[in-house]
Amino acid sequence: MANTKPHIISFLFFLCFFLYCTTSIADEERVFKSKVEQFNYLLKKGNDIYSTKKGNDAISQSFIQFDSAAVIARQIGDSLLIAKSIFAKGRVYDAWNKEPEQTIWHFKKAADLYQAYDTSYYNYMYIKHLVAHSYDKINDSTNCVLVLKEMYDEIITLPDSIKNILSFIPEMALISTEIGNYTLAIKILELVQEENIKNDPNTYNYKDHYWLTQSRLDIYYNKNLKSPFLDSLEVVYSNSKNIIDSIYYSHQLSQLYNYNVNYKKAFSHLQENKALLEKINQQNDVNAIKNKTLKKEIANLKSETAYQKKLKNSRLYTILILIPLLGIILYFTITFNKQRIKYRDISEKLSSSNQQLDTKIKQNDVLNKEIHHRIKNNLEVISSLLHMQERNTNNYETADNLKKARVRIESIATLHEKLIHDTHSVAMDEHLLEVIDTIIRLYHENKEVNINLNIPSVELSVNTSFSLSLIINEWFTNSLKYAKTDDEPVTIHLDIHINEENGSILNVEYKDNGKKYNNTKTNKKGLGTKIIKLLIKQLNAERLSTKCPFHYKLEIPITHDKK
């Protein structure tokens, strides 16, 4: 009882430690899940505000939401969330259009993070096209074309099923027209089908930009001054749902009509554009937005510092709790190590004993083979002695009995030969064919013999194989010696099969074409008949009655020797 006490204490300790760790993990998971939900909420709220495009105030408010989400992403340390927050902030910088270098940096950083994930291929390519757009906005046409060509070379190798989901391809063509590379814009538009292009309220109006791109190509590149695409662009302008889009399309239409020598419409759209700009500038001052954003970043930084301090204190408390626990663990580790050494010594002794047993088994195996070899030789010697005695006697009955004994001995020898290779079971078809072949060689006496055999290839136990082979030996011997066929060939049928209804019963049926006789001497039950009855009893078999005395049916239960 005293030996079990440390084990009980160890079990209770590890149970408490396991519960503590499980609780801590569950708390961490709840905190993580809560922060992810908070991050997604802030990101969605910022996107919703940004998508309204209601001037500088919308930009300022979305800045606040994305900045707060960025703090949570850094606290969690999830690279995908960090990528989302960086990209969201880059979009705000892109819309603000006051610090282009910040826009490019944020977009490149987000694209690099997304590139590491195969499942984020769309996000990676989408942000990469925004990098090209950012270079276009600062008139860096060299880098802009470089990025667009890299994207084109990659997209053209993709299957159509993937191309069709890359909704931003029309935007790439628009950017190419911005820098005057119209041939590249045409090649990019060939990557997408018009019916697959749709506006996206959360990103860009790709369909609207598609009409703008086609208008530029038709007027600036093809010199088609009566381009039908202008009508489509007018519809886009009239359906604009926010002031930012109205400013953008009024400016584009003014430039296109001016190039098209339609000065009246060009001036009209220019006046509309001027009025819209004055309206949006009255809402907020750009510097006020920047100051407000910087204050929010400082507040977020302070919040993150406080969080890190709280996390540090939490880790310190955890360490203080774990120190005594680690001491207890060390004590039990030393105790268990002593037990392990003890069990190792026992294991080494057992291993040594097992090696000795293996040696004994190998010795016994050699001895067993030697015994088998001697038995085989002895059986051959007995068979040879019987054969010599048979040849040296002039008494027919004695010679016949000696031959019968010799056939039985050879039947046993045949079975023994099988057992040398497998001591557990015998292949019935191979064994019986050898037994039958031996009998025919000894008893055919120039008789013509026809044999019909149906023996399945099944494994039988040694006991069943031994008894069955001796029974069939007696049947075949009797048929070859005593069957009266009136000068016709002796025909023997042997059918063995497993009962289909009961797979544990072996059905054996034997018959020859010998005719009935009334010779009392021959009918007298001899040694062979007694042997058959004894063997049937040993097999626990059932002999079924038949009309013909040379027709035998047996039902033998199938048994398996234990290995």
Question: What is the helix/strand order?
Answer: HHHHHHHHHHHHHHHEHEEHEEHHEE
Going by helix content, strand content and strand pairing, the class is: alpha+beta
Amount of beta strand = 5-15%
CA gyration radius, whole angstroms:
50 Å
CATH architecture heading of the domain at 424-557: 2-Layer Sandwich
- Which overall shape is indicated by the principal axes computed on the Cα atoms? elongated
The beta-strand count equals 7
CATH-defined topology of the domain at 424-557: Heat Shock Protein 90
Q: Which sheet architecture does the biggest sheet show?
A: 5 strands, mixed
Biggest sheet strand order reads 2-4-5-7-6
Distance between the terminal alpha carbons, to the nearest Å? 41 Å
- Could you name the ranges where pLDDT drops below 50 across 5 or more consecutive residues? none
Number of helices: 19
Average pLDDT taken over every residue: 80
Question: Helicity range of the residues?
Answer: over 70%
CATH class of the domain at 424-557: Alpha Beta
Q: Look at the structure and name the CATH superfamily of the domain at 424-557.
A: Histidine kinase-like ATPase, C-terminal domain
Could you name the key traits of this structure?
72% helix, 563 residues, five-stranded mixed β-sheet, alpha+beta, 19 helices, Heat Shock Protein 90, single chain, two-stranded antiparallel ribbon
